[in-house]
Write a structure and sequence with these properties.
InterPro entries: MetI-like, MetI-like_sf, UgpAE/MalFG_permease. It is a multi-pass membrane protein. This protein has 320 residues and is mainly alpha-helical. The protein folds into 2 domains: 53 residues; 258 residues, MetI-like (MetI-like fold), CATH 1.10.3720. The protein is built from 17 helices and no strands. Helix 7 packs across helix 10 and helix 13 runs antiparallel to helix 17. The longest helix is centred in the middle third of the chain and has 29 residues.
């Protein structure tokens, strides 16, 4: 009887295998298109994960991973004992928090108002014009900021002098660094973020607006009671994703903007890791840099998990 059951199972498995093989053959071109992305992910995302072992070693490039001495959590402990680590964490969290506070709602508000524009030509022009800064590199963006904020010939300081005020060297003032960084980040990315919400708005059932009009709702009320609730799921998802970057900042922009006079507010975890791992003076400390990077990733993972659990508890939207 057992042999009969085995034969029946193998006979039933053959059609399944044929179906799978037929499916992969019919969709082979799609999988070929997917292959370069998978190769890139494996080579540059997953394989480098094996390098985190150096965070638990006194790694030496001359000895390699296998011969470098194992030191356990030494570099993590040294980082937390360093009083400067609190400054780094504070600067990183504040920059990311201000970026989230001002940068997250701007694309939503912009998309809501742009959706109300009835002239299609104007709507397309404004959308394209707002999306344009996303293609500008961080180097050019910071260069524009230096030009506008120059203490000698900058437009902002010329206006201040016209009003009888003293010029300000904004880029060398630690108190202005966060405001400039957040402003550049919002200007650089709000047009790209608005595309996501505009795409979500186009999927709203038009009958909802018709029903709201029949109830006497004006354009503001339709925006508040129809459009915004209809894209709330997308807003929650984007918020969870942004929470994952709470300890991440635009390192390129910071490296281009900061100097020793603004370290007080500009020095963040990533810039410190860069200096530790690629020090211009003395010996580099790859192990300490890797340890700090792991700490940052773990905190970001915990925050994403917490935000996802909160979204699951208070709404029907979650990532996993």
């Amino acid at each position: 009887m057992n042999s009969t059951l085995t034969q029946s199972k193998s006979a039933a498995a053959k059609p399944v295998r044929r179906t799978l093989l037929l499916y992969f053959w019919n969709t082979r071109l799609l999988y070929l298109l997917l292959l370069p992305g998978l190769i890139h992910m494996v080579l540059f995302k997953y394989l480098p994960l094996f390098g985190i072992v150096i965070a638990f070693q006194d790694y030496s490039p001359f000895k390699g991973v296998f011969d470098s001495p194992w030191v356990g959590f030494k570099h993590f402990i040294n980082f937390f004992k360093d009083p400067y680590s609190l400054v780094l964490i504070k600067n990183t969290i504040l920059l990311a928090f201000y970026n989230l506070l001002f940068g997250f709602p701007v694309p939503i508000i912009f998309a809501l108002f742009l959706n109300e524009v009835r002239v299609k030509l104007v709507k397309r022009f404004v959308q394209s014009f707002s999306f344009f800064p996303y293609f500008i590199s961080s180097a050019v963006t910071v260069g524009i900021a230096y030009t506008f904020l120059s203490p000698q010939s900058g437009l902002v300081n010329m206006l201040l002098q016209h009003l009888g005020l003293e010029p300000i060297f904004f880029m060398a003032d630690a108190g202005w660094f966060r405001s400039i960084y957040v402003s550049l980040s919002v200007w650089h990315s709000f047009g790209y973020g608005a595309i996501i919400y505009l795409a979500a708005i186009t999927g709203i059932d038009p009958h909802l607006y018709e029903a709201a009009e029949m109830d006497g709702a004006n354009r503001w009320q339709k925006m508040w009671y129809v459009t915004l609730p209809s894209i709330s799921n997308i807003i929650v998802v984007m918020f969870i994703i942004n929470i994952g970057h709470i300890l991440s900042v635009d390192l390129d922009k910071i490296l281009l903007m900061y100097n020793p006079s603004v370290y007080e507010t500009a020095d963040v975890i990533q810039s410190y890791v860069y200096r530790v791992g690629f020090a211009s003076k003395g010996f580099t400390d790859y192990s300490k840099g890797a340890a700090i990077g792991i700490f940052q990733s773990i905190v970001a993972l915990l925050m994403v998990y917490g935000a996802n659990q909160a979204a699951k508890k208070y709404s029907d939207t979650r990532l996993f």
